[in-house]
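Shipment paperwork, digital attachment
Item: protein structure file
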Amino acid sequence: MDELKRAAAERAVAEYVESGMIVGLGTGSTAAFVVRRVGELISSGELEDVRGVATSKQTAELAGEVSVPLVTLAKARPVVTIDGADEIGPGLALIKGGGGSLLREKIVAHATESGGGLVVVADGSKLVGSLGRHPLPVEVERFGWEVTLQALASLGCEPELRMDDKNPFITDGGHYTADCRFGSVPDPAGLEREVKSIPGALECGLFVGLARTAVVSRPDGTELIEA
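Attachment content:
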């Protein structure tokens, strides 16, 4: 599986990253291959003056290890963002957030220039006919989280507070994450609106209308799927 993730990441970097670019760098196991590949190409001199916008502390640390210079959104906007996904559905609607960085990932994706957009990298197992097999992560305010999870449950899911060993998992922004099992998400855009209408639900892992391309690797090859 790692080889498929690596193949998708390297194809995406080859197709969409050029010298002089600001690149949004996603979070997670597949996105890590993207960061490492960009670092390799910078070190070899094949890419010059490339800077990244990290979507998490984890990604920022990895970028430092492989010598990818970083810049903040206060200084520049990404031309393209490359990130992974937990599920890729019809129209390139996504479920993201398994890595715990969905809020920052969505901020960076929205900040990316319209000409570049979000490029998703994944192995073939992430393609689904309908979203919902993977729990939908929702980043929630810690104050009153019990009430927020009750409100999420009223939407027809089974929410569960994500744990880190015996303690609640804390995002980089200092929030909790609720993993919500819906089973099926036939209307991702509608559900996104419903979730975000709940006070305390800061952002959800439904990425609708943001991805322009998915780079998907299977044992028989890598393909580009356009939105």
